[in-house]
Amino acid sequence: GEGVVIKTGEETEIGQIAKMIVSENEQLTPLQKRLAEFSKLLGIIAIVIIAAIFAISLFQKRDLLEMFMTGISLAVAAVPEGLPAVVTIVLALGVQRMVKVNTIVKRLPSVETLGSVSVVCSDKTGTLTENKMSVVSSYVDEQFFDEVDFKNESLNFLTKGLALCTNASIDEGIYGDPTEIALLDYAKLYGLSKSELEKTYPRQNELPFDSKRKMMSTQHLINDELIVFTKGALDHLLKKITHILINNQTRKITKEDIKRINEANMKMTLQALRVLALAYKSSNQLSEDNLVFVGLVGMKDPARFEAKPAVEKFKMAGIKTIMITGDHKHTAFAIAKELNIASDISEVVTGEELAIMDFLRLQEVVKTARVFARVSPENKVDIVKAFKANGEIVAMTGDGVNDAPSLMSADIGIAMGITGTDVAKEASDMVLSDDNFASIEKAVEEGRSIYANVKKTIYFLLSSNIGEVISMFVAIILRLPLPLIARHILWVNLVTDGFPAIALGADEKDPHIMLEKPRAKDESLFARGGFALILFYGIVIAFITIIGFLLFPAIHIVENGFSFTLSTFKEVYKLEGMLRLSQSMAFSVLGVSQLFHMLGMVNTKRSVFRLFKSKNYLILISFIFGLGMQILITEVAFLENFFITANLTFIEWLYIVALAIIPLVIHEIIVFFLFIKGKIQKRKNKLVLQ
To answer: Quick one: pLDDT at residue 22?
Structure first.
């Protein structure tokens, strides 16, 4: 035949999709936006701090150079400059963990979005099911056949026609569509080989399958006669049928015949079978009309055994699973019911119903729909947009070229690694290397865990930095000597902030994280009391740091019977070695308290004693390492001189630990009260149920 080229390159259908992918601008995720805005705010705060300290130093007639250096150090303390690096490291570690659950993340920031997913739209075939089709039932001559019957001529003709009307192959290696491979396996049971059939009945022409017609036709030369075989979805094929083949005899089809065929189709679909019909005609023209009905085959595609538990976990996590398939409505519902995705046929919406809906109606429908059957790739985009318009965060799976627009429309596009096309993979945010639905559930769990780790890392850094800033400001306002020098602040930021922050970011996932509801799309990083928590622990750290600074001067004042006034403290600090000892105490209390604070930040709702069951040894290693380094700089002579610290005695270290452990003690008290509150609430709920 001849063809006329009407469009090339970017003007073709595939070209338009490719152009859309290339031109799509990558948008910042909510976390990236919040961190960018927060960094600007911290920058302004840093400038204000420097200006304020400089102004105070002028007013109090302090040493300007010393105060300028202090101002710079405090500005450094106020801005957690390691935050972007720590967040990137945490996300990268999360991506590595995701690889272990067969998920390849293409865009690092999408990890965060994955943790807030509230709707997962999944293809059925190959994702929720094994994609291992097998013919388990046939219908010809107005009767069902569940086993091979070599004597029935109509059944033999059905098998032969289906084998010829395929583009798959199992003779020299297996390739092609799983549905067609199942048909060839079925033909093999009858001793039929596609390659031998095509030698005997050579193909002359073909009308390929497409998602609109939902059928495929091939033309073959059989005994000097051109025969057209058409296979496809029964509801589409019946419109083209005028005759029926029964017991090797052809006659006009009647309403009773159509009723029986539809009943047979319904029986198969209710058993969760994918049904294909075959028709034929003798014709020199390759067309799909005036066809003769031959029969039906029902194929079973078993549900993945991991899919049902994954759906249940999503339910507990407040995430809706939506099944999207090209199957018949009843087939789709039977599988969805088996997987606990849907419980009633009313939860199934077909492509035909979607075609007559306006967008506002679709927005209402998606609130209760759990299955979309007989849908086209174009319908997927509308489904995604409707969910997003309702405020949902949507993950969408896809494997074909036509799935690219819906993958790009979703908040998270998930391509299939085995069956997915390169175009689908390019349009997606992540790729499932095993095409398994359960891997999506594991990826969402990892996404939530990563976000939680990023969040607690940020909380830890900010509360620690606030503690440093407040303790310095209090001393300056009270006209006391500075409790920390610039070197102390920089050391704390590097060692007792940096390593614990990375350890928190690498923490293992909370086993209860999939019992929480998805967070809102516009939820602040500091929502659910986050800012109050940061400020509270910041004040606690500042308080114990100041106590550490005042402790030995206070002891000296009490022992000598001096009056407890600020001027007395100022005089005591002038005693030989007192200021250096007090600064060493404040420095050590601050550093060690942040290490104890890290232990509490592992989980703000659970006791620190769970760490003994944890496999995240990095937390304990960073604690021991930080404590060891803090001791070294007060015990090793050249480090003492460099950091201007005093050699601390065992008793002094006991004072330091007693003060530094206070944030962790407060954490345990809060956890205890939360535990008691939970017990009381459970008891109340039990009484209400009774």
So the answer is: 59
pLDDT at 27 over 60: no
Task: Find the angle CA(6)-CA(219)-CA(224) to the nearest 5 degrees.
Answer: 135
**Residue 387: closest CA among 335, 453, 437, 319:** 319
Q: What is the pTM of this model?
A: 0.81
Task: Assign 465 a pLDDT band (cuts: 50, 70, 90).
Answer: confident
Rounded CA separation 52/46 (Å): 10
The one-letter amino acid code at 301 reads D
Catalytic residue among 123, 301, 411, 497: 123
Does residue 317 contact residue 518 with C-beta atoms inside 8 Å?
A: yes
Q: Which helix (H) or strand (E) holds 207?
A: strand 203-207
Amino acid 20: pLDDT: 58
Q: Quote the pLDDT of residue 173.
A: 79
Domains in the chain, ordered, with CATH? 80-102+442-509+526-689 (1.20.1110.10), 113-130+303-435 (3.40.50.1000), 134-300 (3.40.1110.10)
Residue 449 CB contacts under 8 Å (≥ 6 apart), including other chains = 94, 115, 508, 509, 510, 513
At 533, the pLDDT band (50, 70, 90 cuts) reads very high
CA distance 193 to 168: 12
**Is 123 among the residues known to form the active site?**
yes
CA dist 80 to 51, 203, 531, 544, Å?
19, 71, 16, 21
pLDDT digit string, tens, across residues 143-185: 999 888 888 899 999 999 999 999 999 887 788 888 999 999 9
